[in-house]
Amino acid sequence: MGKEAVAKKIADIFDLPRDLIANTFRLTLVGRGQLFIENHKGIILYDPELIRLNVRGGEIKIAGSQLQVRSVYAHEVYIEGAIENISLEVRP
Hints:
The chain has a 6-stranded antiparallel sheet, with no helix packed on it. The protein has 2 helices and 6 strands. By secondary structure, it is of the alpha+beta class. It is elongated and about 45 Å long. The longest helix has 11 residues, at 3-13. It has helices spanning 3-13, 18-22, and strands at residues 26-30, 34-38, 40-47, 50-55, 58-72, 76-90.
């Protein structure tokens, strides 16, 4: 059993959110104007119309207009603007 499978099993046993144990990313969208991303691995591209973030197993793309990174910490990013699309590109 791999580390990720063990982490998921522990999360299920103790009724914990899997992202706490397995170090996966979490997105919280508030309306169309605020986005919180936890457990990111860095900003790849920052443009007022497109923001790309590295996450475990892939990349998140946020498209819109007047996009701004309001705060960035080691594991959290807060984005504001007119968010039109959020997509995940999965990498092996």
